[in-house]
Amino acid sequence: MQSFLQSKFVTTTSPLGSYCIGSSFGQRSCIPKRACIGTPVNGKWTPWSEWSQCSDPCVNGHRSRTRFCSNPRPSEGGFQCTGSDFEITSCDDISRCFHCRFWTKNVASFQSVQ
C-alpha cells in the first residue's frame, strides 16, 4: 500500500507580541484508509424473469415478471438503473377456456356448460 507525507505549517500573529510554544512546522507519514471515491459503477438490470402463470386465463387474468438492478449493483457513486423492476400484463386467452354446447336427448332446448 502506498504511503504519503502529511505536512503542517502554522503561522500566527499574537496580539500581545508573544509567540506560540512548539514547532510551527511538522511532517509525518500516513497511509490513507481508503481512496475517496473509486471509479463509478452504474447499475444494470438482470434479465427479466419468466412470466408468472396467468391468474385466470378466461376472465380478467394477469401475469407479471420482475428484474433486479444487480448486474452489477451501482457503487462508488454510480447511477441506479432506470425504468421499472416489475411488469404486469393481461393474459385473457379464451381459446384456453373450455366451452361445450350440446343438445339434451329428451328436452328440445340448448344448454351451455363451461
Notes on the structure:
The N and C termini lie far apart (75 Å). The strands form three sheets. A two-stranded antiparallel ribbon has the order 1-2. A two-stranded antiparallel ribbon has the order 3-4. It has strands spanning 4-9, 25-30, 62-66, 86-90, 100-103, 110-113. A hairpin with a 6-residue loop joins strand 5 (100-103) and strand 6 (110-113). It has no helices and six strands. The protein is 0% helix and 26% strand. The protein is mostly beta strands and 114 residues long. Keywords: Disulfide bond, Repeat. It holds the Pfam family TSP_1. This is Thrombospondin type 1 domain-containing protein.
Layout of SSEs?
Blueprint: E1 4-9, E2 25-30, E3 62-66, E4 86-90, E5 100-103, E6 110-113
Antiparallel strand pairs: 1-2, 3-4, 5-6
Short précis:
By secondary structure, the protein is mainly beta.
Would you tell me the structural class of the helices and strands?
Answer: mainly beta
Radius of gyration, in Å, reads: 37 Å
Query: Which band does the percent of strand residues land in?
Result: 25-35%
- Strand/helix succession: EEEEEE
Distance between the termini: 75 Å
Biggest sheet character: 2 strands, antiparallel
Strand order in space, largest sheet: 1-2
Average pLDDT level: 76
Shape: rod-shaped
Helical element count? Answer: 0
The helix content is under 10%
Number of strands: 6
Point out poorly predicted stretches.
Answer: none
